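The authors assume throughout that readers already know how a fold can be written as discrete tokens. In essence, backbone conformation is discretised, so a fold becomes a row of integers matching the chain in length. A single example would do more here than another paragraph of explanation. For illustration, here is how one protein appears when written out as sequence plus structure tokens:

…
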Amino acid sequence: MCEKSALNQTRPEEGREIATAGMSEACSKRGIVLLLPVLLILLLASMGPSDSARGQAGALREKERQPLFLYTNDTEGYLQACGCTASQVGGLAKRATLIQQLQEKSRDLSQGVLIPVIDGGNLSDDPEVSRAVLESMRLIGYKAVCLGKRERELQTNFLVSASECGIPVVAFPAAGGVGTTLSDKGAAVHPDRRTEGVTPYVLFRAAGKTVALISVSPTFDASKELPGGSLRAFLKELRTKADFIVAFCQTDNAETAGKGALDSLAGLVDLVVSGVDGTHAPESGVSHPATMISGVAVVPRAPRGYVGMVEIAANASATASERSATFFGRLERISENLPANDRVQELVSGYYRQQQQRLLEASANLREEGALNYEPAPKCASCHEEVVDRWRNTRHARAARTLETRSRLVPACLKCHSEFFRRTATFAPKTEVAWHGVECATCHGDGVLHSALRDKASIQRKVPEADCRRCHDRENDPHFNYAVYLEKIRHW
């Protein structure tokens, strides 16, 4: 063909001379077409790296970081998303799945060893719920749990459950002080772990490093003197056993409530996991360098509904000035689309079955409603019949029946789904009033004076959004919109 023979049989200079001298119109057009890819490549090269190249560079940067450990915080009794609304996050069974996925994804980067999982504490203020959470942690394979505010409230009950589940409880200093020496396993202050099972630290290996984990309160003071010596001295001794010391600090905001602890920890630990900003929903799946506060590298706690990951740079250094570039924090959202881990799901379901059976057995003989400290919906109907009839067609009126179909007639759910339970702490399934769900008194007040005096001032007519958000919170109803939802239950 014309263009092929010309391109194959002439040098580039001769080709350009022939083209300018009067090549046929067809040959000229086809030659330009063949030159276009070359020109395009030159143009893109002059514009800098492409999106693809930038993506490859980002992947290389990610490979330069290695996972150090995963962590969770503040379960606060949230065992499972209740299913009342779409897009709910969290729950132990889906948390287990996400942790497994993150561990499998990171296995090659951590020399084939699953990266450790730590919990920062505050499992629940209920000993039975706390036990269920600990059982799930045993199935998942948690390395340790830190002693939070809720655990301190439960005291021995929690420590016994943790010991029976084989999960070390970390608090520094441990109750009663710290030991005079630090063993490689983390010397417990009291040898009887069933009653005093708190250890001042644990050691674990990850990313080729030895990490010492401690847990401190917001009022931690490293200069405090104990019978066995100062806390500062013990931390310096611990430094000889670990490449890095990581501290979990039990505070919501490291820059305010926990600043005293950070000032005290400066120069003694390498990283603190603590609250930084709880006002905004965390960004999921993005790694950020640690924030330097009071000379300490800080990554945020993982709020309920998220799993956190701490990463270290491949050239990790313990130099104080480089710690913000050494540690990275990442939060992963426990999406509603994640499948539930079968073993953990069965554990949670078994707990709910047990709770429901216990509640129903305790209230099986309650047949009489007795004296109530609020006016139930049928009493309101004596004056507001049309309003109550419209309420009966709303989801609020069916809220308790919804739990029955899901085998979730348990206190944790009934407190939002049944006004009768909220006010009496019982359920009484053989009485009609127990099944009224979210009724008049839930939103407008008990109505006792209003019923007796017929006084409009004694009832709350307009319901503030804050009242709704006691149940429609971020975890149970993440997309709650006050104006939209108000129309869904319109009955006035």
